[in-house]
# Entry
Amino acid sequence: MTGKIMRWVAGYHDLRLDGMMDLVIRAHGATVLDVGCNRGLVGFELANNGAEVVHGCDYFEDGIKTARELFVDLRNVRSRFEVVDLRDGPNILKAHFMSAYEMVLLLATLHKLKRSMEPESLRELIVYLGQITGHYFAWRGTSDKPEENEDEIIFLDLHLAGVGLRRIHTSYISDALGVAAIWERR
# Structure
């Protein structure tokens, strides 16, 4: 890994994990899918806390390149990072990733998908992500408008409950940082 990337990682605290330290604690031995992984830093934190498999996807090609470089020296972690366009629906995920993960992360991503996907396609994607969640599904809303974050929580509650997940944790971090929530398989 290049020195530039290591210095960047060493000085970086990923705010997307604020309110979700329970997942970091439970990462040992876990399989993780990070949807909208950006540069893979959340997955890197989970890997450093014992996750055995970390897969991630994003539409941001430079981010995926960075994630691959970040994980290249982690020998005890099976990692895979792919550039995907989630507007193509669940089939794009089925083509690149496993059929089940203990943890599925959707951090600071749903608001972007809402802007670019038809409502029925978005519902189908969320249901699929819920179906492949073995234990924990985590979401992070980043809107500075509380009503938008609440709308996303209601949307997720509705569609994740239909596949056997129930919300067990909600953190209202701050107006600037948004809200974090975790659902668990019943």
Notes: The CA atoms of residues 153 and 181 lie 8 Å apart.
